[in-house]
Amino acid sequence: MGKVLIIGAGGVGTVVAHKVAQNTNVFTEIMLASRTKSKCDAIAADVKRRWGVAIQTAKVDADSVAELVELFYNYRPELVINVALPYQDLAIMDACLKCGVHYLDTANYEPKDEAKFEYKWQWAYKEKFEKAGLTAILGCGFDPGVTSIFTAHAAKHHLDEIHYLDIVDCNAGDHGKAFATNFNPEINIREVTQKGKYWENGRWVETEPHEIHKPLNYPEIGPKESYVIYHEELESLVKNFPTIKRARFWMTFGQEYLTHLRVIQNIGMARIDEVEFNGQKIVPIQFLKAVLPDPGELGEHYTGMTSIGCRIRGMKDGKERTYYVYNNCSHEAAYKETGTQGVSYTTGVPAMIGAMMFLKGEWRKPGVFNVEEFNPEPFMEQLNKQGLPWHELSGLDLEV
Ligand code: NDP
């Protein structure tokens, strides 16, 4: 059905490669390209061993539009699945426009020198993609991604108006390390150390980092201390569902993790500006990434599960109604299938399904879109088939 190019050979790129290889009826030709070609080759070898599918590999610096354009002209993909880092989003979108290639990613653009993620930079490409007749699908991981699609599904089937949305993200897994991040450490630490922010009554309310917290109860897991942080899907969801009165994002953190994070910040290792070291300029957070465990390698000893979902209150037929939709994902099962842990798995599977939606023509229209702007149904159906089954509960006394 279509030829895809995956960019980025980290934990998420690994899962995308394994999942597209399991769906060769849709993905007829596959290439994996990244900064370090040896990582692509290792993933391709594992994909071949597990699924008997050959993947081409290439080296590309995705910060360079010229290099991307050369690769796109040589390989001629129909769609690029961008699972490199958020810094590369705009360069890849520019290359797509130059070569007539469709685009999908899992994280919105962030400038390297400012820990600020917003959709404005990518939304500004709307007209260019429309004029070129190309589709750009933004934020198609789990959160953003599945959480946004869960919200669209709730709005379509369960509620006439969504009033209160709480996205709840629990990782109750244990990787056995004193401190490690579950996805790229630089991006993760930038995200969780910034101020909290949520939407209430038509405006953003800012909080100190981790200021609002309480234990929330997660299915099959139990209570876990959960913290309100800012997360990128809130920006598009309050725009696309204007009846929302309050939207918040909760994430669980263990005490050990928070203590390490505080020390990292206090000693300046979370800095994103350059410092002089031995006559060389280095960025502390990038140096930190080099010494922390590689998130892609955490899988082997990871136990427990993640639980991510949307707890929603709103109106249905003139009455107040609650609705909770979630997925629980086992780290062990993810590792067994793809050699990576649950956080990479829960991001990579939806990226593959989004690409499948595009190639099947379900999600194909010119412009730049967040995933909640597409029909959620075929995507929800694939979640159940591709390893991320979801469950729904209604009529609960939701505790948030
Ligand atoms: P990793 O750091 O493990 O992998 C990133 C990959 O991108 C690496 O292979 C890296 O190359 C490659 N890369 C970085 N810079 C360049 C460049 N200039 N050119 C080419 N390749 C480059 O990250 P993850 O796999 O954990 O995360 C991937 C993406 O997924 C991130 O954008 C992250 O924000 C997003 N994400 C989204 C989630 C969601 O639910 N929506 C959840 C988790 C992650 P090298 O190997 O050489 O370092």
For the largest beta-sheet, the strand count, sense and barrel status come to: 9 strands, mixed
Query: How many domain modules?
Result: 2
Give the termini separation. Answer: 44 Å
What is the count of DSSP helices, taking H or I runs of 4+ residues?
A: 14
User: What shape does the CA trace take?
Assistant: globular
CATH class of the largest domain: Alpha Beta
Q: How much of the polypeptide forms β-strand, as a percent range?
A: 25-35%
The CATH superfamily of the largest domain is known as: Dihydrodipicolinate Reductase, domain 2
Short description:
The protein is of the alpha/beta class and 400 residues long.
List keywords for this structure.
400 residues, alpha/beta, Rossmann fold, Dihydrodipicolinate Reductase, domain 2, nine-stranded mixed β-sheet, binds NADPH dihydro-nicotinamide-adenine-dinucleotide phosphate
Report what the structure shows.
The chain is of the alpha/beta class and 400 residues long. It has 2 domains: 2-138, NAD(P)-binding Rossmann-like Domain (Rossmann fold, 3-Layer(aba) Sandwich); 146-341 and 382-394, Dihydrodipicolinate Reductase, domain 2, CATH 3.30.360.10. The chain is built from 14 helices and 18 strands. It has helices at residues 11-21, 37-51, 65-75, 89-99, 120-123, 126-132, 146-157, 185-193, 233-240, 255-266, 284-291, 331-338, 342-359, 377-385; strands spanning 2-7, 27-34, 56-59, 79-82, 102-105, 135-138, 161-171, 196-200, 203-207, 213-218, 222-228, 246-252, 275-277, 280-282, 305-316, 319-330, 367-370, 391-394. The strands form 3 sheets. Strands 7, 8, 9, 10, 11, 12, 15, 16 and 18 form a 9-stranded mixed sheet that branches. The protein is globular. The termini are far apart. Residues 8-13, 34-36, 39, 60-63, 83-86, 88, 106-107, 141-145, 183-184, 187, 295-296, 343-344, 347 line the site of NADPH dihydro-nicotinamide-adenine-dinucleotide phosphate. NADPH dihydro-nicotinamide-adenine-dinucleotide phosphate binds next to helix 1 and helix 13.
